[in-house]
Amino acid sequence: MQLDAYNALRDQCALIELEGRGLILVKGEDRARFLHAMTTTGIQNLTETEGGIALFLSDKGRILAEALVLCRDEDLLVDTEPETRELLMEHLDRFIIMDDVELEDVSAEYAVFGVEGPQAAGLLDGLGVPLPAQEYAHTVWDGILVAKYSYTGGAGYRLYAPVARKEASRAKLLAAGAQACDISTADAVRLEFGRPRHGVDFSDQHLVHEAQLMSRVTPNKGCYIGQEIIERVKSRGNVNRLLVRVLVDAHEAPSADTPVMAGEKEAGVVKSAAYSPALGRGVAFALLRAEFVKPESVFRVNEAEATLAGAGRLG
To answer: Taking CA 151 as the corner, what is the angle to CA 145 and CA 157, rounded to the nearest 5 degrees?
Structure first.
């Protein structure tokens, strides 16, 4: 872990290079209607300069991808994890039948940066960046798209710079006072702030309710792929497992798939974890059997005691 970058990300301003993001343009007259029917989010309600977080589900209700969707004048920009870019392109293309919709993979055309931390807004404002006011909203700064969304779940912005301007943009942000931060350090803060990541903490094997991401579902939005499963699980009122955070009383973070034990029983497994200098112990996302997710539960992870963490920022 880069301790200087960790402190900057939590208390000042850090620059995270988000390599390999999957960037898909959705164009055509039917783009909003089409994407609206493909996701859990009310895409048709977005106006230019607005955005939202969308889940793309299979017909079995499993989470195929999570994406930031930005509504622009002539297209919708879909920003997804590197590992789900190809899968999401194929998934979307499969459902284009009579629609006036065109997909374009522009992943290689942009460098993506996170400028995050309590001082991120002040740093960008000092550079003359027109800051978007609402979460997921976006503006344009000298040809660079700027969205109000962060990797860690804390205060911050995401910048999409033409790849030819990657080094110049990076140098300008560092010169303005942002501290360079590697992704493993950013992940430690992400865990502290409670932002799960698709492909790491949850995947296409999990339901929205299991990942506890119902905030990503727009109520009463009409039909979309996977809606039937969402409503069925909602009516039943429970699932067998839940993605939660646990605090581990150890100075070494457990690895992924480490069992989480409740007495002699295996309650679940660790999905991702990191040591938190602010907390003086490990913090992890774990997928646990729902019967063990109780405030008083005590677990063991690699012989260290572990307890459930509350919601929101830790430390």
So the answer is: 35
- Closest alpha carbon to 175 in 15, 5, 12, 16: 15
Say what the pLDDT of residue 221 is.
Answer: 83
What is the amino acid identity at position 64? L
pLDDT at residue 115, as a whole number: 98
List of the chain residues with pLDDT < 70: none
Q: Where in the chain does DSSP place strands (E)?
A: 14-17, 22-27, 51-57, 63-71, 76-80, 102-105, 110-116, 138-141, 144-147, 156-162, 179-181, 241-248, 259-262, 265-276, 281-289, 298-301, 304-308
Say what the pTM is.
0.94
Tokens of 232: 């069925």
The SS3 assignment for 87 reads: helix
Q: What is the DSSP letter of 229?
A: H
Compute the distance between CA of residue 58 and CA of residue 283 in angstroms, rounded to an integer. Answer: 30
Query: Identity (one letter) of the amino acid at 205?
Result: Q
- Are residues 147 and 68 in contact, defined by beta-carbon separation less than 8 angstroms? yes
Contact 239, 210 (CB under 8 A): yes
DSSP code of residue 226: T
Structural domains of the chain ordered from first start = 3-191 (3.30.1360.120), 240-315 (2.40.30.110)
Strands in 43-101 per DSSP E: 51-57, 63-71, 76-80
